[in-house]
Protein: Histidinol-phosphate aminotransferase
Amino acid sequence: MTIQSVNHSIEQLKAYEMDKSNEELTREYGLGDIVKLASNENPTGCSPHVTLAITSKLGELSRYPDGAGQGLKQALADFLGCETKQIVLGNGSNELLNNITASFADGDDVIVYSQYAFSDYELASLGISERTQQVAAKNFAHDLPAMLETVNQTANCKMVIITNPNNPTGTVLAKDDLIKFIKKVPSEVLVVIDEAYIEFAPTLSCVDLTQEYDNVIVLRSFSKAYGLAALRIGYAVSSASIAEILNYTRQSFNTSTLAHAAATAAIKDQHFINQYLAFNHEQKQALYDGLDSLGVVYVKSATNFVMVNVGDGMDIYQSLIEQGVVVRPMVGYGLPAWIRVSVGLPEEINRFLDTLAQVLS
Structure:
């Protein structure tokens, strides 16, 4: 039987490439000691207050969560200096991106994003429209003037997606440049700013711009710096009118009681975040030093990962994985010479550098 696609753009989609689990790696390669540096997770874990918060909610597992997530929204509003009616919770920021594209775009609309930006932008866009527009990057970063020109010259442009800091390159855009960009974008075009890694560059936060510009939506995640990747919790901040629409169209009970409790505890423990940021800065420098000693080219990063040029990304990725070191190949981003390496624990970084030295030789 031939299955007809409801939306022809879906036929262009390629599934997001998941990391292999430790069980899969053990089964395929017989590995027992595995170092995972592929998904930009917090290797130090999460705040101890998170564990206590989750434990306190274990007696409520038979009950549905607060559908509005009001307690978490209030904690976020207090932290961000906005109103709870501006916040929408999501099962990770990925779900929110899908919610935004489904709510505001259709098959005749164009969604603009940058080359070398997070692959989910293409997935979310093509799920709605066949008319996506990728703009060439400049020095591995968003080329804002070129993106602005594309937005202004593209009929039916409905949305432009920007990542700051950018995944997978680690590059950043100056906030002043973003403000100039937003001012020149037509008011009917949504500007979605993905700040999944903003904790590593907090001065670049654009949450305050949602108070002034009705067409700006900021996405945030608890999966990276806060160490809550397994709980799948993120949020969007926007004008109240946009948030109202997104709350209409999101799935009921899309975020869990445990995620609410964990994220509320996490956002209140900024001491933990500050400690982790200091740790990440120190270990990233150790990674830079090791790569310098190997004579390997890399892109300076404002995040908790580094993109590294190893000549043949897939070949080196495979050689590393066979030695129990898991990184992310960049061939899917059109960067076949590169891999992306998360900033891990000191022993993990040393293991990666030693193994990389072996496979490069």
Summary: The mean pLDDT is 91.
